[in-house]
Design brief:
It is a single chain. The protein has 483 residues and is of the alpha/beta class. 45% of the residues lie in helices and 21% in strands. It contains 13 helices and 15 strands.
């Protein structure tokens, strides 16, 4: 069946009074006056036009559908009330960001507009990005940073090395977050002999600085730890405000125990990082640092290399922005864009592979959980705990029996002592009687033993005294009998 193409539309004779369409068989003159574009060439030509027209633009919008790739690239959408624009930020540019991108964040992105050939989709290739409305926090950060720097809290001379082989590490972080689980996993895998003492705090909010300060003070006073690690995951500048507070900075500076700051991601910097004895790029890296002293120098050099690389990338970015209007080699541009498109295709394949692996890992995890539950049902620790409980109960009963026996013996002893006191001659003297002896100590029983002028000694209940006999009167026979 021949292909029919619409050539033109025209009026017939005026008396016809109607419109007529003239059709032509496409086979008669298919190549005359037109150009047929392959999809690849048309999309490529459109991409070149768009990239040339929009080589350097600023776009403001809200982040949605954020999808970090395993390669380090960031994929998300910028949207407002009327439209949306796909955005890609490649690994090198994403590493320079000082904040963590997340859904709902209002940002200002700078880059160039391009078209992703595989989908025929326009997108913004972002070079830099900054949050809108975060200026006041940044100014406060810089002011406090300059103040503490002038006081010498950032000086390298006051920073102490970490202990080579710590026995106990104090972790100051949230007890419910993923940070403490990551640290425990790494410590268990790399150095199971290291003891971990968790001091739970809130890592964001109004009460966070006070709790962190109290944690540092307690771990110093207790003398239980050899190193302190301040840890939390990444977040916005508002989320990490506690680690940019002055009271936390001064608590770190006053600590007698070395402090490691492991706050946020590698590109996040806080005041705590500058004051601490050592900054770890992430909480996981902090766990590796305190468990592997021999790698400390190598990791420090690697961090310096990364900082140098970021500085060079920043300088290259500034140079690229200043030379935005200068013509560059077309070959270099096409090669760069080709590499970027290949990287996107690689990310697409990696996502599909990750989904498959995740499904398999979840299935394996369910099987492991079932086996773990079966093992725990036969755990000997439960029997040991029951035996320990029975031992403690028996010990308590024995103590009560001993206490009752001792009380009974004490009561009997008190009764015997009371009887002994009642039979003592001293008790008779205490009732008002007295013992009289002569100068030689013989007991005087009768007035016949007493002569006038002799010296007598009288013993009372509370002491004795010496007296001289002035007169002796004998009782009559009748009074003696009455007695």
């Amino acid at each position: 069946m021949p292909t029919i193409t619409l050539e033109k539309m025209m009026l017939r004779e005026p008396e016809a009074g109607q419109l007529a369409l003239i059709f032509q068989d496409a086979g008669e003159d298919a190549g005359a006056g037109r150009r047929i574009w392959p999809v690849r060439e048309l999309v490529g030509r459109a991409r070149e036009l768009v990239e040339r027209e929009f080589a350097d633009v600023w776009v403001e919008g809200e982040i949605s559908n954020l999808r970090p790739a395993a390669s380090g690239h960031l994929y998300f959408t910028l949207k407002d009330a009327e439209a949306q624009l796909p955005v890609v930020m490649f690994r090198r540019q994403a590493a320079l960001m000082r904040f963590r991108a997340e859904d709902g964040l209002h940002v200002l992105a700078r880059g160039r507009v391009s078209i992703y050939d595989q989908r025929g989709q326009m997108q913004l290739v972002a070079e830099t990005m900054e949050p809108v409305g975060a200026g006041s926090l940044q100014v406060a950060f810089e002011q406090l940073k300059e103040k503490l720097k002038k006081e010498g809290l950032f000086d390298a001379g006051r920073k102490r090395p970490l202990p080579a082989f710590p026995q106990t590490a104090g972790i100051v972080t949230s007890p419910t977050g993923a940070v403490i689980r990551d640290i425990l996993n790494i410590v268990g895998r790399r150095h199971s002999g290291l003891n971990i003492l968790l001091y739970p705090v809130t890592v964001q909010g109004e009460s966070a600085p006070e709790e962190i300060e109290a944690a540092i003070a307690y771990l110093n006073d207790s003398s239980l730890v050899d190193v302190i690690v301040l840890a939390r995951g990444g977040g916005s500048l508002e989320d990490m405000a506690a680690f940019n507070s002055e009271r936390v900075a001064r608590a770190i500076a006053g600590s007698r125990v070395p402090v490691v700051s492991a706050v946020g991601h590698e590109t996040d910097f806080t005041i705590a990082d500058f004051v601490a004895d050592l900054r770890a790029p992430t909480p996981s890296a902090a766990a590796e640092l305190i468990t592997e002293a021999q790698h400390k120098v190598g990791e420090h050099v690697e961090r310096l290399e990364k900082r140098l690389e970021r500085g060079m990338q920043f300088q290259l970015l500034r140079a690229r922005q200043s030379m935005a209007h200068v013509s560059v080699s077309g070959t270099e541009t096409r090669m760069t864009m080709l590499l970027h498109r290949l990287e996107q295709r690689l990310d697409d394949a990696a996502d599909r592979m990750t989904e498959t692996v995740d499904a398999q890992m979840r299935e394996r995890g369910r099987r492991v959980d079932a086996l773990r539950a079966a093992v725990l049902r036969h755990d000997p620790r439960q029997r040991i705990a029951l035996a320990r409980h029975n031992f403690a109960a028996g010990q308590a009963r024995l103590e009560r029996v001993l206490e009752r026996a001792i009380d009974a013996r004490r009561a009997r002893l008190d009764g015997l002592a009371a009887r002994l006191r009642s039979l003592s001659p001293l008790a008779v003297l205490e009732r008002g009687y007295a013992l009289v002896t002569d100068a030689e100590g013989k007991l005087i029983r009768s007035t016949a033993q007493v002569k006038t002028g002799e010296t007598m000694k009288t013993r009372l209940g509370d002491g004795h005294f010496t007296s001289r006999v002035e007169d002796v009167t004998q009782a009559t026979q009748k009074s003696r009998r009455r007695r």
